[in-house]
Design the sequence.
């Protein structure tokens, strides 16, 4: 090791970069598959309408310069192709400058999508991917050993992710301090997974132990990331284990996987060599002077921008998942500062009967991930992200979260918009659009073990209230009303 690089982390860098490329690949595929329906020119919240009212300086994006659905698709597929190439090792087979350019293009393309993504891209893992992707630009490739400064910046990012999440819990909902939040969390989380029912039914003492262990993992363990090896690697290993527990218990897009990759970057490759058949590190050339200068400049930028997130950690009014600049560099993170005690779900229904009567038959639209059919076991989708399903969870908490997109969604369903229907699992009107659509608000809870054995249901639901009364296309705001597709 010299003052600038360390060969001890070459394997950690390799795993980190390949894993990050895989996350980028998934993120771009999500954008390509869901973008046209959500933010396309005829989407629920169109990009052209957004860029017309929000200036470039507030949301820098290629799509301020030009937007068509085709151009969006080209950018998305280009990002996916570059990510796949990096995943296959292409960045290690080109000169250092070219590899850095590839990582920079990936970051710029995804930044362009996030900055016009509006509510659909308002999740903390979008900023986390961008901040991680920015640091990856300066991590080098097979031409040189990993730069020590960037490795420390990755640890600083991991520390903010974990410590910020721990602080927001302790400062937030009292159930975290009382160790009771996991009595509810597995049932009320945004998108339960196939094991969530079993996690929910763990004994309450174990839930309390889980909560206490979470506090240790997020408020104590991250401090050890800045200690010498092997303590830092042990701390990283603990974080990996806790993140895998979260992977098993729910669907949180690529948040957990990115956190795992950040933790692995803090593992000394010499420790891995003691338990795994790891080859000796390759011979690295001395880093060129221009590369050292670029890394030093990037480090200085991150140090300066760290002032606001550091102040936020110390603040009694801590912000969660907040970006202090439009480039999403050096952000604040956190999750579940409060935990819902009950789960409220919006269920959308339609009918093809022209006249409504008390005997009208209503049929439900089924989403891919969010709870609907009480007999359907929740599925595992993460690290793939179902954006509409997540926003439906927020709509169940408060109609205010759906103000910008729910009426357009209903209008799309009233004309069987093809792009929108692709986001759903089941459309009950495959041949012709419904005459009316309505939405009802239910309280969902996991069935007990006895109920599960008797009925086969995973969920029990109780009607709470009407979320949206029956509407026809003519009742929808003209600004949200799409044209009926041609037969």
Sequence:
């Amino acid at each position: 090791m010299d003052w600038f690089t360390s060969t001890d982390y070459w394997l950690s860098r390799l795993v980190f970069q390949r894993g990050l490329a895989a996350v980028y690949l998934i993120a771009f595929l999500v954008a390509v598959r869901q973008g046209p329906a959500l933010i396309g020119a005829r989407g629920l919240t169109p990009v052209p309408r957004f860029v017309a009212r929000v200036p470039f300086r507030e949301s820098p994006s290629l799509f301020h310069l030009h937007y068509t659905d085709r151009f969006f698709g080209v950018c998305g597929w280009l990002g996916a192709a570059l990510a796949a190439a990096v995943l296959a090792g292409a960045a290690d087979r080109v000169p250092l400058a070219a590899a850095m350019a590839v990582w920079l293009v990936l970051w710029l393309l995804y930044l362009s999508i996030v900055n016009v993504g509006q509510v659909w891209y308002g999740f903390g893992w979008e900023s986390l991917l961008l901040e991680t992707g920015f640091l990856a630009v300066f991590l080098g490739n097979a031409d040189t050993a990993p730069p020590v400064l960037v490795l420390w910046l990755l640890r600083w990012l991991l520390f903010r992710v974990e410590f910020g999440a721990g602080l927001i819990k302790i400062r937030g909902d009292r159930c975290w301090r009382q160790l009771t939040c996991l009595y509810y969390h597995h049932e009320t989380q945004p998108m339960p997974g196939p094991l969530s029912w079993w996690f929910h039914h763990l004994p309450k003492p174990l839930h309390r132990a889980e909560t206490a262990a979470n506090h240790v993992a997020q408020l104590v363990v991250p401090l050890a990331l800045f200690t010498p090896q092997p303590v830092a690697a042990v701390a990283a290993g603990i974080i990996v284990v806790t993140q895998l527990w979260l992977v098993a218990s729910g669907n949180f897009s690529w948040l957990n996987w990115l956190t795992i990759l950040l933790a692995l970057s803090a593992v000394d490759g010499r420790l891995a060599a003691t338990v795994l058949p790891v080859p000796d590190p390759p011979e690295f050339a001395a880093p060129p002077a221009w590369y050292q200068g670029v890394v030093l400049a990037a480090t200085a930028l991150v140090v300066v921008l760290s002032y606001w997130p550091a102040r936020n950690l110390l603040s009694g009014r801590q912000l969660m998942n907040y970006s202090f600049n439009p480039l999403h560099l050096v952000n604040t993170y956190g999750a579940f500062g409060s935990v819902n005690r009950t789960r409220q779900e919006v269920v959308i229904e339609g009918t093809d009967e022209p006249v409504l009567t008390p005997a009208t038959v209503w049929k439900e639209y089924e989403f891919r991930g969010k709870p609907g059919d009480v007999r359907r076991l929740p599925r595992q989708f993460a690290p793939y992200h179902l954006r509409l399903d997540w926003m439906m969870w927020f709509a169940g908490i408060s109609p205010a979260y759906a103000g910008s997109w729910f009426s357009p969604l209903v209008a799309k369903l009233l004309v069987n918009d093809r792009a929108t229907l692709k986001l759903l699992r089941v459309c009950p009107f495959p041949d012709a659009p419904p005459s009316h659509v309505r939405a009802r608000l239910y309280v969902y809870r996991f069935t007990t073990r006895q109920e599960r054995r008797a009925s086969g249901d995973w969920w029990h639901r109780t009607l709470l209230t009407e979320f949206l009364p029956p509407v026809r296309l003519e009742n929808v705001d003209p600004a949200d009303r799409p044209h009926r597709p041609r037969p």
Remarks:
- Strands lie at 343-351, 363-364, 366-367, 424-426, 436-446, 459-471.
- The two ends are 68 Å apart (CA to CA).
- DSSP finds 19 helices and six strands in the chain.
